[in-house]
DNA sequence: AGTGTATCCTGCAGGC
DNA sequence: TGCCTGCAGGATACAC
């Protein structure tokens, strides 16, 4: 589910609600989302204060005191829901996997229907090593079009697969990869190394444009995704190709096509994106 | 270095 | 109504 814009929306919501809270207790309802034993996870979080909330790619980072943090990968259906008091009745999350209880009486729930998400307590050093294996942040000021162009030249893989690889660029998933490729006029199966300078520059600009616009819209809700307030992402209204197969291209009227490669659906306009 | 396939899960839509 | 198939914002491991 959540890509960079959805993770960013969640991060912004949590900054307003859970920073400053102290974790008094943790309930692990679904141990399979942990990447470590229940006991080392509990030992790594209990008694710690939440100092800040950050994002790296699609991961939400809950920064704790004493150089520790909780790294949350949201997977396909994961979400982080803050509550001022223990939720009752209809407000209760449907698939609570981990619940962090605060000294204030509030709590933070990692809710994940399919449980492809992961939650892990780490120290900063371990996280930094992990983070160094991920690609650059596409929205970072220092990430230039020339960097994208240069990196593309090393790979024969289809550009859509290249964009989904978190080791190459961090945070891009299937929705925004497809949308940016449409705006840049690039066929999803175009070999990365064949993308010319001008095209790479256009892709860089459209990637940023799509990600920024999606953040502004609060993300994209297809079915599961909800922000920290339970609201939906409005970017779904601005999708040009994702999920629009057999509909007309909004630019040229050609029928949007769906193909499958790399185990994922790709959506494109055969008129605007010629291989 | 690629690709295809399978795996981890649940839920929903569509066809019959 | 119910059963079946296919599909899903992700990540990884495997064989070829």
Number of helices: 7
**Integer count of domains:** 2
Mean pLDDT over the residues: 95
CATH topology title of the largest domain = N-terminal domain of MutM-like DNA repair proteins
CATH architecture tag of the largest domain: Alpha-Beta Barrel
Largest beta sheet: strand ordering: 1-6-7-5
Estimate what percentage of residues fall within beta strands: 15-25%
CATH superfamily of the largest domain: MutM-like, N-terminal
Can you walk me through this structure?
- The structure is a single chain.
- This protein has 275 residues and is α+β, with helices and mostly antiparallel strands.
- The protein is built from seven helices and ten strands.
- The protein has helices at residues 4-17, 38-45, 124-132, 145-152, 159-164, 174-184, 197-216, and strands at 23-28, 50-56, 59-64, 68-73, 78-83, 96-102, 107-112, 118-123, 257-261, 264-268.
- A four-stranded antiparallel sheet has the order 1-6-7-5. The protein has a four-stranded antiparallel sheet with strand order 2-3-4-8. Strands 9-10 form a two-stranded antiparallel sheet.
- The chain is globular and about 55 Å long.
- The mean pLDDT is 95.
């Amino acid at each position: 589910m959540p890509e960079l814009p959805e993770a960013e929306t969640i991060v912004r919501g949590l900054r307003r609600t859970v920073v400053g809270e102290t974790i008094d207790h943790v309930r692990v309802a679904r141990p399979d989302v942990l990447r470590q034993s229940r006991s080392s996870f509990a030992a790594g979080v209990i008694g710690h204060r939440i100092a800040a909330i950050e994002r790296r790619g699609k991961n939400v980072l809950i920064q704790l005191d004493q150089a520790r943090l909780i790294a949350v990968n949201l997977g396909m259906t994961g979400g982080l829901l803050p509550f001022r008091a223990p939720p009752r009745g209809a407000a209760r999350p449907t698939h609570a996997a981990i619940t962090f209880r605060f000294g204030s009486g509030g709590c933070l729930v990692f809710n994940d229907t399919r449980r492809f998400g992961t939650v892990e307590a780490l120290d900063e050093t371990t996280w930094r090593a992990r983070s160094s294996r991920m690609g650059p942040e596409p929205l970072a000021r220092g990430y230039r079009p020339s960097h994208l162009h240069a990196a593309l030249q090393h790979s024969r893989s289809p550009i859509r697969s290249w964009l989904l690889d978190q080791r190459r660029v961090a945070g891009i998933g299937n929705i925004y990869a497809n949308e940016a490729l449409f705006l840049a006029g690039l066929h999803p199966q175009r070999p990365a190394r064949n993308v010319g300078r001008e095209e790479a520059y256009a892709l860089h600009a459209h990637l940023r444009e799509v990600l920024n616009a999606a953040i502004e819209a609060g993300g994209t809700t297809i079915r599961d995704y909800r922000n920290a307030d339970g609201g939906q992402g409005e970017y779904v209204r601005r999708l040009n190709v994702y999920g629009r197969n057999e509909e007309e291209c909004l630019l040229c009227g050609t029928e949007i096509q769906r193909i499958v490669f790399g185990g994922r659906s790709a959506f494109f306009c055969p008129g605007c994106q010629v291989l």
